Amino acid sequence: MQPLIALIAGILGARVAGLAGVAALDGWQPALRTGVALMFLLTTSAHFVPRLRAGLVAMVPPSLPGAGLLVTVTGVLEFAGAVGILVPATAPWAALGLILMMILMFPANVSAARRRVAGATPLGLRTVLQLVFIAAAAAAVG
C-alpha cells in the first residue's frame, strides 16, 4: 500500500505546488510524472535496503537464476525510470520502460502470492494495484 500512498501523495503535492505557482508542476501530467517518480523512488529503496531486499529476493520465482542480481537490476531500472519520467524529453520512453517492467515483473508477484511469500500482496489486490500503476505511468505522458 505504501507505493499507492506515495503515488497519490506525489500527485496531489505536485498539483498543489503547480497551483501555487511552481510553473514546472502546473498541470496534471507534471503532477502525474511526479507521483509516478516518487512511487518508484520508494520501491527502488526496497531493492537496496538489506531488510527489505531479502523479501524481494524471496519473491523471485525459484525457476529464475540469480535472484539477487535480478533484484539489483530491477532496482537500478526503477531508479532510472523514476528519474527519466521527470524529464519531459525522456518521459515517454521512461514511462514505456516502467510499464514494460511492471508487466514483465507481474509473474513474480503472482508466484510470490501463490507461494505465500512473506510480504507478498494478495493476488487480487496486487492485480488492481498493478493496473493503477500502469495507468498512472501511461497517463503521465498522455
What string, H for helix and E for strand, traces the elements in order?
HHHHHH
Mean pLDDT: 95
Whole-angstrom Rg: 15 Å
Approximate strand percentage: under 5%
User: What's the number of helices?
Assistant: 6
Q: Largest beta sheet, briefly? A: none
Secondary structure: number of strands: 0
Query: How far is the first residue's CA from the last residue's CA?
Result: 25 Å
User: How many separate structural domains?
Assistant: 1
Q: State the helicity in percent bands.
A: over 70%
Secondary-structure content class? mainly alpha
Overall shape: it is elongated
Instruction: Give the low-confidence spans.
Output: none
Keywords: Membrane, Transmembrane, Transmembrane helix
Protein name: DoxX family membrane protein
Would you give an account of this structure?
By secondary structure, this protein is mainly α. It has one domain. 76% of the residues lie in helices and 0% in strands. The protein is built from six helices and no strands. The longest helix has 24 residues. The radius of gyration is 15 Å and the shape is elongated. It starts with a helix and ends with a helix. The mean pLDDT is 95. Keywords: Membrane, Transmembrane, Transmembrane helix. This is DoxX family membrane protein.
